[in-house]
Design a protein that fits this description.
The structure is a single chain. The protein has helices spanning 48-55, 78-88, 104-115, 119-132, 148-160, 178-195, 206-209; strands spanning 4-16, 21-33, 37-41, 63-68, 71-72, 89-92, 166-170, 198-202, 214-219, 222-225. The protein has 226 residues and is α/β, with parallel strands linked by helices. The chain has one domain: Rossmann fold, CATH 3.40.50. It has a six-stranded mixed beta sheet with strand order 6-7-8-3-9-10, with helices on both faces. A four-stranded antiparallel beta sheet has the order 2-1-4-5, covered by helices on one side. A hairpin with a 2-residue loop joins strand 9 and strand 10 (222-225). The radius of gyration is 17 Å and the shape is globular. The two termini are 27 Å apart. 42% of the residues are buried. Adenosine-5'-diphosphate (ADP) is lined by residues 15, 17, 22, 24, 42, 44-50.
């Protein structure tokens, strides 16, 4: 029995833009172990976001398998895939993908609401996570009223609120100035260690990637150790 949380085996992805086939990923193999942070670097357009979408079950590989907690993600019916996504994964995006008209508390509680948890439990967990990211004084602010750094901290809280096995982070600080990026990253790394969550973090910044336990690079559609 190994402690692999998320793995991909010989994954390939080809897009067709209507004119030609674009082979973005070819034979990508990756195993993410429990509580491990893996960083993936690559130039713009190299397929980083594509790989995260495949790992998160948001898009289908052209070939190969994604194994999440022992299950072949893309072989499952959509409803079961959504269940696994909600229970085992957290997502952080560059442009946060939070709901601007909802409060910080409501945004963070959303994954638990989808899961059908009781409102009292949702409030309790969401405020605990917001406290952990240093935003206990912003619970009822609407997202639109928060700064960029604060929004990314809300996004981190939302990704961790459901105690996921693995967080998939796509350029989580790519939209912040260097000072804010560093603060938000430190917080993210500290929380990841405390929660013992696995993370796959995509970034174009080698200085950020170096802080992970393991760094890989996408090069000509293949994942190679850096
Ligand atoms: N839905 C799509 N249809 C066609 N081509 C796409 C699609 N999504 C991404 N691509 C192409 O795949 C390549 C990789 O994109 P992406 O994974 O977003 O790169 P990265 O995140 O590393 O910048 C790019 O050349 C992009 O134009
Ligand atoms: Mg991208």
């Amino acid at each position: 029995m190994n402690n692999s949380i998320l793995a991909c085996h010989d994954v390939a992805k080809t897009y067709n833009d209507g004119v030609a086939n674009v082979d973005v990923l070819k034979e990508v193999n990756l195993t993410v172990n429990a509580a491990e942070m893996v960083a993936i670097v690559g130039t713009s357009g190299s397929g980083k976001s594509t790989l995260l979408h495949l790992l998160g079950g948001l898009d289908h590989p052209t070939q190969g398998q994604i194994i999440l907690n022992g299950k072949d993600l893309h072989a499952l019916p959509e409803v079961e895939k959504c269940y696994l996504r909600n229970h085992y994964l957290g997502f952080i995006y560059q442009f946060h993908h939070l709901l601007p008209e909802f409060s910080a508390l409501e945004n963070v509680g959303m994954p638990l609401l989808i899961r059908g948890e009781l409102p009292s439990k949702i409030r309790e967990k969401a405020s605990h996570l917001l406290d952990q990211v240093g935003l206990s004084h912003r619970l009822h602010h609407r997202l639109g009223q928060l700064s960029g750094g604060e929004r990314q901290r809300v996004a981190i809280a939302r990704a961790l609120v459901s105690d996921p096995l693995c967080v998939l982070a796509d350029e989580p600080t790519g939209n912040l100035d260097p000072h804010n990026a560093e603060r938000v990253l430190k917080l993210f790394f500290d929380l990841q260690k405390a929660c013992k969550t696995s993370v796959v973090m995509v970034t174009h910044d080698p200085n950020i990637a170096r802080q992970a336990q393991r760094t890989m690079k996408i090069e000509q559609g293949r994942l190679v150790p850096l």
